[in-house]
Structure formats: C-alpha cells, structure tokens
UniProtKB/TrEMBL annotation:
Belongs to the ROK (NagC/XylR) family. This is ROK family transcriptional regulator. Pfam families: ROK. InterPro entries: ATPase_NBD (IPR043129), ROK (IPR000600), ROK_cs (IPR049874), WH-like_DNA-bd_sf (IPR036388), WH_DNA-bd_sf (IPR036390). It comes from Streptomyces longwoodensis. Gene3D superfamilies: 3.30.420.40, Winged helix-like DNA-binding domain superfamily/Winged helix DNA-binding domain (1.10.10.10).
Length: 405
C-alpha cells in the first residue's frame, strides 16, 4: 500500500488510523506513518487514544519487519472485546437473532417462527425479547451492546431505516423500524438507547458473504431465492444500493409466458410469481404435496423429493435467464445462490440458462456457487453494517470524545 490517506481534513485522524488497521491496509506504526504521512510522534498520540478507548491492541502475531526499515514493528489489531453487536434477519415467516463479536463471530443465536404479516409492533417487540435471550446465553450484559443491525425482506431507504412499498411486508411501509426496535430492546433488557441500522436482506447476505468468504472479489453478486427473490451487489467492498435502495429487486421483473401468474406485489408475470420458493410451494400444493412456503420447499428438497427437485430446477432456469443480463451488466467474479431454493437442482437450472444466454466474455471467470455462511449470512452482514458504521473515520472522533479519551 503506497497511497496516502486524503480527505477533507489535512491530516489523518485517529479514526483514519483505526480504519487502516481494521481493514488490514496498515497494521504497524511504521506502515501507518508511511500511508498517512504523519510523524512518528503524531501516530503515537493518536494510537494512544485508541488504546485508552480499548479499541486497539497489540497483536499476538509478534513483530514484523518495518516498511521504514529499522526495528521490527509490533502489529496492531482491532480490539473486539470492548463491545458486542446484535443482529437479526427477518424472513417472511421465520427469523434469526444473534449476538456477534465486532469482528463477525456469532456468539449465540436464536431462530424461530415469526411472521412479518403480524406487523412491525409485534415482530419488533418479539425480536427485542430474542435479543435479551441471546445476550444472556452469550454471557454479555445489555450495556455492552454498541448497536443493532436488522435485515428485512423488502426495499429499504437506508437513510431513514424505513421500508419503501414492500410487497412482502404488509403494514410496514414507512414504519419507524429503528425507533421501535431500539425501544423493544430497551424494554426487554433495561438497556439505554442504541443505534439501529436496517437494510435489505439480500444486500446484507451479500455483504456478509463477500466479507467473510470472498474479501478480494471486487464485483460480487448474491441472489436470495426464498419466499421472494432479491439480489445484493457488493462493489469494491461496499454494498451497491442504487439511488434509493431499489437495486437488486429482481423478483418483480416481468418474465415471458408468466402472464397469468399473480405476484404478491399485485402484478402479473413477475419472476417471483413463477420461480421463488413461494411459487414452487404453490405448485407443489396444487399437485397435492403439502407445502406452504419457501422453507417447506427447502425441507422437501433436503429430503430428495423428486417433484420439488424438478420444480426447483425449472425455477433455476427462469432465474438463470434473468441472471444472464445481471452478469453481462456487472461482470462479477462470484455469483452466490442463497436462500431456501438454492440446492443442487436450482443451481443446475441457473447454470443451464446462465451460460447459454450470457456472453462468454462475462462468464469466463465467473464462479457460480452456493453460500458458505448459509443461513447466517444475513446476520454476519447486519453485524458488519453496524460495526462499519460506528467505527467509520467520520464517527470515531465524536465517540472517542464521548468516552473522554
Ligand atoms: Zn411482483
């Protein structure tokens, strides 16, 4: 790393140094001096504040050679012991909640049925109780929580944390999710107010999976196919959301020969009405196989049910046809297929159409894979969203001053 840190400030702040260490771009005093252009003494003063806050520690890895020559340097690392983060991933009929370390390790997790159709008050209050339970199980106090991240199955205005006309979340349009979830957490635990961040589930699954499994992939796409269909895009390490959170909402693209399929959004012929876990469940039910949701289809696929497998493969072909355009536009290095439907029959169907329809140039180096984090991808992404927000250089100074360092 040879580039220096530039910004609106003249000199790199304590927050900039923390960011360089956290992202692994500079992890010794010498490397920080070199990247920022700060003097040894100034780097030392700023690091001392981060040590006093408990946000930085000397690494266990031992000294490494200094880029400036001279004495070997001690490596520095983000100290994740001073706080924990809470995350929840809300699907249409079930949810997960977890407590995570600041570096993304899940310490305790709870999963169970929870229906978004019950409306925001009941759902968010229940998540508050789940948070209290996982914290107790992990042995952490409510006061240690620095923030909450929530993944929801709908388009989110991340500026306000509100969902915008969500087809799968009746009663949630424009609702103050942040305020209610912070209050629910406070009521369940007695904790003071904490920041709450909300984003779309596919975005957060993509973010979690990219960070944990493909950190060097600069153009990354994850498609979640459960009760609905959505995609998350991560470009150069950041989620790409479009101008108002609408990027990646693939489920409501009209597809050919689907004119008589009614979608939950009220339109006919949407991809989700034909190829989602919900659509496959409806076709199975019509054929006499008991299935009401994407998770029921997941169970049937896991049990090797032949009709479910055939329908999942057909759904994969429909999704693959749309993904041919996505891949041609974005030229990603990795395409992850995730969600209830993403077993081998579905992946096979996607590959059949994707490679047939996309330009060979855009798929030559493309990996089409299933999720490594599985059902925890959204939780990991929601935790990372909170940590990246709270420890962003522009927020660090204010938070250090609040700690009195
Ligand atoms: Zn639709």
């Amino acid at each position: 790393m040879t580039g220096r840190v530039h910004g609106s400030r003249n000199q790199a702040s304590a927050g900039d140094l923390l960011d360089l260490v956290r992202t692994g771009r500079a992890t010794t005093r010498g490397a920080l001096q070199q990247v920022t252009g700060l003097s040894r003494a100034t780097v030392g003063q700023r690091l001392d504040r981060l040590f006093r806050a408990g946000w930085l520690r000397e690494g266990a890895g031992g000294p490494v050679d200094s880029p400036l020559g001279g004495r070997p340097s001690i490596t520095l690392e983000f100290d994740d012991a001073h706080a924990v983060v809470l995350a929840a991933d809300l699907d249409t009929r079930h949810a997960r909640a977890a407590v995570l370390t600041l570096t993304g390790e899940i310490l305790a997790e709870h999963a169970g049925p929870l229906a978004v159709d019950d409306g925001p008050e009941r759902v968010l209050d229940e998540l508050g109780r789940w948070f209290a339970e996982v914290l107790a199980r992990a042995g952490h106090a409510p006061a240690e929580v620095c923030g909450i991240g929530l993944a929801v199955p709908g388009p989110v205005d991340t500026g306000t944390g509100r969902v915008v006309q969500p087809p799968m979340m009746p009663g949630w349009d424009g609702y103050d999710i942040r305020g209610r979830l912070a209050r629910a957490f406070g009521e369940a635990t007695g904790a003071g107010p904490v920041p709450v961040l909300v984003d779309n589930d596919a975005n957060l699954m993509a973010y979690g999976e990219q960070r944990a499994s493909y950190p060097d992939c600069s153009a990354f796409v994850l498609v979640k196919v459960s009760t609905g269909i959505g995609a998350g895009v991560v470009v150069d390490g950041s989620p790409y959301r479009g101008i108002d959170g609408g990027a990646g909402d693939l489920g409501h693209i009209r597809v050919p020969d689907g004119a008589d399929a009614l979608c939950r959004c009220g339109s006919y012929g949407c991809l989700a009405a034909l190829a989602s876990g919900g659509a496959v469940a409806r076709r199975l039910a019509a054929a006499g196989v008991p299935a009401a949701s994407g998770s029921d289809v997941r169970d049937l696929l896991a049990a090797g049910h032949p009709e479910a497998a055939a329908l999942a493969r057909e759904a994969g072909r429909r999704v693959g046809e749309v993904l041919a355009t996505v891949v041609t536009l974005l030229n990603p290095g990795v395409l992850v297929l995730a969600g209830d439907l993403a077993g081998m029959p579905f992946v096979t169907g996607v590959r059949e159409l994707l490679y047939q329809r996309a330009l060979p140039r855009s798929t030559a180096r493309l990996e089409v894979v299933t999720s490594r984090l599985g059902e925890q991808a959204g939780l990991v992404g929601a935790g990372a969203l909170v940590v990246d927000h709270l420890y962003a250089p522009e927020r660090v100074e204010e938070r250090l001053l609040a700690l009195g360092v």
